[in-house]
Amino acid sequence: MAIKIKNLKILFLREIKTKISFKPFSFLLNTVLISIIISSLLLALNWIFFKANWSVINSNLSLFAFGSFPSDEQWRPLLWLVILSFIALINIFGPKWKWLRKNLLIIWIGSVPVGIYLLKGGFGLIPVMSQNWGGLTLTIFITICSILFSLPLGILLALSRRSSLFMIQKFSSFYIDIMRSVPLIAVLFFGQLLIPLFLPYGLEIDRVWRAIIGFTLFVSAYIAEDIRGGLQSIPKTQLEAANSLGLNKYQITRFILIPQSLRVALPALTNQLIGLFQNTSLMSILGLMELIGIGRSILANPEYIGQYIEVYIWLATVYWILCTLMAYLSKQLEKEMSSNKGY
Amino acid sequence: MRLNIKFFLQIVLILILIIFVWIILNNLSINLSRTGIGFDFYWLSKPAGFSLAEKPLRYSPSDTYAWALFIGWINSLKVIFLSLIFATFIGILIGFARLNKNSFIGLISAGYITVIRQTPLLLQLMFWYFVGFLNLRNNNFLNFNQIINFSVQGIDLFGIKFSSEFSALLFGLSIFSSAFIAEVIRGGILSVPFGQWEAFRSLGLSERTGFIKIIIPQALPAFIPGLTSQYLNLAKNSTLAIAVGYSDIYAINDTIINQTGRAIECFIILLSSFLILNLLITNIMGLINKLIISSRK
Amino acid sequence: METVLIAKNITKSFSKGINALNKVSFTLVKGKVLVIMGPSGSGKSTLIRTINGLETFDEGELNVLGIKIDSNIDERKIKKIRRRVGMVFQQFNLFPHLTILENITLAPINVQKRQQTEAEEFGMYLLSQMGIDSHAKKYPNQLSGGEQQRVAIVRALALKPELLLFDEPTSALDPERINEVLDAMRNLANQGMTMVVVTHEIDFAKEVSDKVLFLDNGKVIEISSPDIFFSNASHERSRKFLNQLDKN
Hints:
Chain B is mainly α. Chain B is built from nine helices and four strands; from the N terminus they run H-H-H-H-E-E-E-E-H-H-H-H-H. In chain B, 35% of the residues are buried. Chain C has a single domain, classed as P-loop containing nucleotide triphosphate hydrolases (Rossmann fold, 3-Layer(aba) Sandwich).
């Protein structure tokens, strides 16, 4: 061990030595760069700890978490968030029992109806209108619902795009290409406007669900392309092997194609999830009170006027932590898949 | 026999689609007649009546909707084109820096990438606008000898003025996209086999010469698909202009809908604008790809 | 007799505490051929790569053409060595985006600052020596493996090296293509080129080498003349290895 440390030291010194003696210019550049970065870091830390006025965050924590959910009922979204983080914790640190791992997806799916019940109320709970849903709860609600709906839709679209049926193939290609060429904000905005126009008179869907429909329509096109990439990466020999075993078309799709393509597409799908999570913020432009919407409304309050930096840093931190967590979760899942080669 | 089943399936599918579309269109016509808006494009030639802060060409509220939309299109093109150049430039720098493993520069660039990628673009845009530009209370916050001047009014470069809305959007889009482009660049360079590095080193070529003459030419074709999709994303992301009040094509469509209620027509206009924009980007990138390939042969 | 290469106790350890090279020492005299043999994973490639600084080492000292290097990386010295030492790789490592002639003249023009016409003339001369001058304007992927490897040899020769390193030059070739490369190497040896060759080709080693170094687990098991090594190896492990090779 001691030798190792010594070696490391020598290596480090050696690096510095070569840098000083042979690359005076890049050494100078490095020093300047390092000092600029360190001094700006120090300035930032000084600001964060001594100058910033964090009361704008402290006194609005419940707004950031639950929006304008009635304060007596806030235990409901809190309970849902606790359940979700508990599932995530099991996902990361939980035992590697096979039955547990296999059922985790079902548990994730199951968390949605639980969330709807807890947020919406009814059946013994006081009903809460979706206008009052907000903050992190709403952000996570939209993300989870949209991803769970768009995953099967995306798989279906990807399979249709490779279908031998001409009409099906053309239709899904058309849908995917159109969706991928429009900006998300347009899909969401026109979703809010047009969905009511397409529905029979009298039938109404509230804003949150219209947003979820918009996100689902948009994200499923991207997921479809990721899965198609996964499908293309499956070697032909796999199909030959499956055919020679006498599996029928449905069985090949269900047991060979989908699992393998999902595994290949996992990193891309994670990026879609992270992108979706970040893009729920666009709903703040369209009047929903999710995380950023809450931030904007707090900044509009005369009491907190001008405290942009505090609010933005806080929001950025929340997003950064959750996105990094998702990336970590997916890395974990990838490792698991490649280590036991099974599902 | 199989063919018949396929044929039958397709017929059923077409029927279902037709019925679905018919129901939707029926609902639509009922709803439209109820609101009394209707569906046509004649309104495009009527005066728009709203003013625009950002106008690269002559425009007044008495000009037509069509002209306002065209101004929006030019505004979009302007911000997309400039951010694309800046994003590529920063992205290449960060991507190269990220290749230095276990070094300070590598660490800094990795930090840059994670902070930029793991926070929403909208938040970053709001940051550049409200904190970056609107906070510069005095009129010349950073003034370098009349060459470039950052202030609450935006950027003034050699007397060419860019509004603070445009500048914030330019900053936000360039920096956000640069983090993704950096990953494309890094991936492209890592796709060149390690043997190529060893080969030029063993010939006594310096790292710089080898990198420029051997590694980059081989990585270039690997850059193109990734860059294309990032540029397409950048174009789509530019519609977040509305968050900082820059009048791009989407923002103007939004204003028109609020004024006239012509949602469906505007959706068609927006869709076709983006189809054109995407075609433009993919074709230019395809051309660049061809140039790269032909320069090798 | 001028000694071109002196290795003294070269040791390199990987992070797991396993030694890739363990106190390897040998010398090589000008105009001679050293063949390095050993089972896969024995450290042959690592050893030959340390000679031109593609791999670093932790302890010991290396003297290449009078330039001394040790565990302290001195980039200037390594550059000097690389200018005077040529290397041929298992996977050819030709530059796929350059023509054969451009592959060959790249280093003479950029490293030795020679005139383009002069470099091209010399390159064409070397190519004709190998009998592949008709391919000069082609790209590497238009050539067979054997031709590509001969181009790689020409690329190394174009710098007029004083020492040539071969890292398993025939392992990636089809069996019927091996001899054209070995013939080229034989010719070089006959012309008095100093060479270090990592290879599994027993016949080549018997015929061409002046010295055989047998490496196992990063340790030199024996260094002897080919006559002794192939007929009467002093070590149990060398004999086992040779038996195995014969069977294949």
